[in-house]
Amino acid sequence: MQFRFSDSLKNLRPSEIRELLKYASAKDFISFGGGMPNPLTFPMDDIREIMDDVLSQYGSLALQYGNTGGLNDLRTEIKNLVLETEKIKTSEQNIIVTSGSQQGLYELAKVLVNPGDAVITEEPTYVGAISAFDANKADMHSISIDNEGMRTDVAETEIKKLISEGRRPKFIYTIPTFQNPTGITMSLERRKHLIEISKQFDVPLVEDNPYGELRYSGGRIPMLSALDKDASVVYLGTFSKVMCPGLRMGYTIGPEEFVGKFNLLKQALDLSSSTFSQYVAWQYLKRGIIKKQIPKSIDLYRKKRDAMLKALDEYFPENSSWSKPDGGMFLWATVDSRINTTDMLKDAIQEGVAYVSGNAFSPARSQANSMRLNFTFSEENQIYRGIEKLGNLVQKKVGPLQSN
Amino acid sequence: MQFRFSDSLKNLRPSEIRELLKYASAKDFISFGGGMPNPLTFPMDDIREIMDDVLSQYGSLALQYGNTGGLNDLRTEIKNLVLETEKIKTSEQNIIVTSGSQQGLYELAKVLVNPGDAVITEEPTYVGAISAFDANKADMHSISIDNEGMRTDVAETEIKKLISEGRRPKFIYTIPTFQNPTGITMSLERRKHLIEISKQFDVPLVEDNPYGELRYSGGRIPMLSALDKDASVVYLGTFSKVMCPGLRMGYTIGPEEFVGKFNLLKQALDLSSSTFSQYVAWQYLKRGIIKKQIPKSIDLYRKKRDAMLKALDEYFPENSSWSKPDGGMFLWATVDSRINTTDMLKDAIQEGVAYVSGNAFSPARSQANSMRLNFTFSEENQIYRGIEKLGNLVQKKVGPLQSN
Fold first, then answer.
1. Which of A133, A149, A375, B191 could be disulfide-bonded to A138 (CB atoms 3.0-4.6 Å)?
2. What is the CA radius of gyration of chain B?
3. CA dist B290 to B44, B52, B96, B99, Å?
4. How far from the centroid of its chain's Cα atoms is residue B1's Cα?
């Protein structure tokens, strides 16, 4: 007997990152692939203490079913957190706890997108957003990025065009700060322009901010949610890059009507996120562990970023270029236009080093000679050796091409 | 600015159970509402020990991102578990770990159902299945239940009719053992008939088995997955009723092609289930804690079931009837046909007792004078008092009706 599958997955491609995960823990393998925080940053002793206390004090509640919207005490702490870090003013009923921010992305698309509806993204953009939007058959219109982030002038033209065709986009999705995959931060001017566009053309904004706390240089730029209280913005947050990814804790902040839809859908998706993980995240915030962990992560990651930038200078061929991120976990390298990084990945893995190919992040499939390089997971000496290997590989590929 | 929501949630109703959750922890409130295991059954000391060991021995892996399909060691233990308990022969690549079995239900509908496709369910059936199927716009054809479970003769007629209309159902969904909400177990003959129907009409089976281990009387009846190795069966399992619900751990077992689709979708849904929860579930199985916990749960729940049956005998009016389940967590009571249990719920909550109204479980909305009563969560004396209150309420409602 054959299963007759629905059409719903027909646009979905398997994630290259998911496949590369298996290499991350392989011995002597250098992984610039996954967006994995360094386990040295996990506050292991604090988490052990918190888990023990949660079981002693709240065991019968923490191991039981919980509210779909999330633990109220955790939502209060999240409210305080975003106020303190990003100056975002919100309240508990505007917050819903999600099973990682990936669930927020899926829910976002599911509650807003009818098959074929247009949405605006950055080009390139987060691969998990592409898969969440594809799973809901969104028609992605991706807007190129320069050193100041999304080209909002291009976005404006595209939105006008779509509206003239009767296809007003359902939302504009952006990762304004330390963008995934490029590491680029959107300038204040562009942020203001984006809000103007959103208001003028009646298209809500969605900002994803997984890395905001991981700043190694430069000054903080206000998030869209903090810039204009009258703007329609949905904010996606996560504990995967600060606390740890393995508890799968994220959150979405938005207008109450919107959060209500999320809640209704989440009842069908997974009833609620792990009650236990929520108690742990609550205590992690309440005890201020986050304030001890972040400076440590920043110290560690800044060195790794600097190491990777230095290694790229040393080992990558002259006609390559790369971003110089002020924070986050990634930089974006573009090499000779005759190289296809998807093809080159097989050779790289042979050499014991992995990255994610540019087109994995490209709704337009226009990033064939770029790659995303994660600098947070590997040791510094691995970073030098890995970039050397990749530089040599690029050199070797370009050599024969040049002699043609 | 208004959000323009998609059509995807238009069939979804908020879950009555989710709303009743808030009463479950209220003091002096008697909750027969949620399907909550009794926290006395949570193996608290073992879980504390396991969590501590997991952090010591696997901390940097257990708090990190994991495979979408699930921890391999956990899948091996699940394979052994279903072989030992249900004689189901499977292998690791046929198993995918889910964030509770609710996620399995959502994935099932998403990968198989195009909007408007027919599916077969029981009448009444699990409210979470209704919401997962509604969220994917399945057209549910629900088949009535008697004391031997789903009326497979009625199912056969319905399937024939649908096929004659060119609308072959995408699957048949059943909870064969200790059905939710009725507590009824499908007879062996009906199970065999269902497999025949599935083969003859080329419609895959989906069996949901959250309660199979919680048997208080009678002998085990083989699951569909164990009865015929050539049948196309998807099996949904969970750790919410044995270990605890708060870690949100479930699993789906099915043909490899099917599990592959699940995996692809899960990348978009939440990347992976909590790595930490998976390590805990793995050790919970590996250390045999499950074998200590289940007999304790059975002892506790059998007494509560007996108490509720006795209380119903004593306090419910003569023209009421109810199921006598051999296991699980619920029984199903049907009262005077002039009573609407959805309306009566407000009065019951006033009296400090909650149940879930019949129509919450009814795709056909034909269970207006029934109610689901959970017997696992409350104390025995609460069970007597709660059933007395409900009996009186029914009596009071019928009284005036009879004098009309």
1. A133
2. 21
3. 12, 18, 20, 19
4. 40
Contact assessment for residue B276 and residue A247, using Cβ atoms and an 8 Å cutoff: yes
DSSP tally for chain A: helices H, then strands E: 13, 14
Q: Prior bond to B204 cis, omega within 30?
A: no
Please give the CATH topology (third level) of the domain spanning B44-289. Answer: Aspartate Aminotransferase; domain 2 (3.40.640)
> Residue B46 carries which side chain, given as an amino acid letter?
D
pLDDT tens column, A86-131:
999 999 999 999 999 999 999 999 999 999 999 999 999 999 999 9
Phi, psi for A330 (deg, rounded to 5) = -135, 150
The DSSP bridge pattern shows strands B149-150 and B139-146 to be antiparallel
- For an interface test with B, the pick among A202, A256, A270 (most B C-beta atoms closer than 10 Å) comes out as A270
Q: Report the alpha-carbon distance of residue B128 to residue B361 in Å, rounded.
A: 9
Please report the number of interchain residue pairs, chain A to chain B, with beta-carbon separation below 8 angstroms.
Answer: 258
More confident residue, B122 or B35: B122
Per DSSP bridges, beta strands A205-208 and A172-174 are parallel
The domain over range A44-287 is classified in CATH as 3.40.640.10: yes
Phi, psi of A171 (to 5 degrees): -165, 165
**ipTM of the assembly?**
0.95
Q: Which residues pair with B120 in a beta bridge?
A: B141, B172
Classified as helix, coil or strand, A157 is helix
Chain A residues whose CB is inside 8 A of the B64 CB are 36-37, 39, 244-246
Of B64, B204, B244, the CB nearest to A63: B244
Determine contact, residues B207/B88, Cβ cutoff 8 Å.
no
Distance CA B277, CA B24 (A): 24
Q: What is the pLDDT of residues A126-172, one digit of tens each?
A: 999 999 999 999 999 999 999 999 999 999 999 999 999 999 999 99
pLDDT at B272 over 60: yes
Q: Do B1 and A39 lie within an 8 Å CB cutoff?
A: no
Would the CB atoms of B9 and A232 count as touching at under 8 Å? Answer: no
Q: Looking at domain B7-42+291-403, which CATH architecture does it have?
A: Alpha-Beta Complex (3.90)
pLDDT band (50, 70, 90) for residue A227:
very high
Interface test with A, best of B106, B163, B270 (most A CBs within 10 A): B270
Q: CA B263 to CA B272: how far, in whole Å?
A: 9
Task: List where CATH 3.40.640.10 sits in chain B.
Answer: 44-289
Q: Which amino acid is at A44?
A: M
* Spatial separation of the C-alpha atoms in residues A313 and A321, rounded to whole Å: 9
Using alpha carbons, select from B187, B178, B247, B180 the residue that is nearest to residue B215: B178
Measured between alpha carbons, how far is A180 from A188 in angstroms, rounded to an integer? 18
- Tell me which chain A residue has its CA closest to the CA of residue B133: A268
pLDDT digits (tens, 9 = 90+) for A48-84: 999 999 999 999 999 999 999 999 999 999 999 999 9
Measured between beta carbons, the chain A residues lying within 8 angstroms of B59 are: 39, 42, 44
Say which of A21, A113, A274 has its CB closest to residue B277: A274
SS3 A40: helix
DSSP A285-315: HHTTHHHHHHHHHHHHHHHHHHHHHHHHHHH
CATH 3.40.640.10 spans which residues of chain A?
A: 44-287
First to last CA, chain B: 53
**Of A70-79, B19-28, B189-198, the least confident:** B19-28
Delimiting residues of CATH 3.90.1150.10 domain(s) in chain A:
11-41+291-399
Tell me if B112 and A66 make a contact (CB, 8 A cut-off).
no
Instruction: With CA atoms as reference, report the closest residue to A43 among A364, A223, A305, A283.
Output: A283
Measure A186 CA to nearest chain B CA, in Å.
24
Q: Which fold has domain A11-41+291-399?
A: Aspartate Aminotransferase, domain 1 (3.90.1150)
